[in-house]
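Justification of computing resources. Each target in the renewal requires a structure prediction run like the one illustrated here; the chain below, 252 residues long, is used simply to show the kind of job we budget for.
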Amino acid sequence: MRFLIHLFGAGLLYALSLAPADAATGGEPVAVTPVDVAPCLAAAAADDMDKAATACDVVIDNEKTVKGDLIKALIARGALYARHDQVDRAIADDSRALLLDPRLADILNARGELWLKKGDKPKAVQDFGAALRIDPNHEKAKANHKAMAREIERIGAQMAVAGKPSFNCARARLAVERAICGNRELADLDREVFASNARAIREARNAAEAKALQREQDAFIARRNADFGRPGYDLKKAMQERLQRLNGVDGY
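Resulting structure tokens:
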């Protein structure tokens, strides 16, 4: 008898614990009111910082916001911050969006441009490259990555070997090589030509194109060696022209 009374009491307590939830909804599950992202998107699109601050915070700070809407709100607010030169806030929002969905190529490119504004070129190149790995045809990321990668490569090469050519001056035997070693400007030019040629080969579409590029470089060196010292030959001009051909008319 005592066992039955104990069992009945336990059952009653369990039933009472469920009663408030059932009473509130008539036995149906509690409905969750969805968070409306539309006001945030509208305020951001209208470039209204005051309204967006409130409307977007409501969405972003609400734990019940669904993932898709949270990403939309972060992107919208991040773009708004970027337009108003609030770079750090824009980066923070883009970074949160990318944590939720790392395959947002547009946002990776946008964050890369923000890193560039802050002067952090390595991080900018990293984001541009990540965007291209996701979408190889992303035109903005492609242009940004190309420009920045070449600039960093050029700056890095100049800092590391300023005044030094691409070859060992201790082994210089030809007159043209000694002339390059004895002139800081020519030495820097030689190094840039070498680095740009190496980059062009790395970016070649296939092995045949890479071989053709190297043959072109070998032909330039052969002409340089043969023509140096002849009347009218301008070594500096020849090297500058070679560099321009490698890098294109845009200077990259």
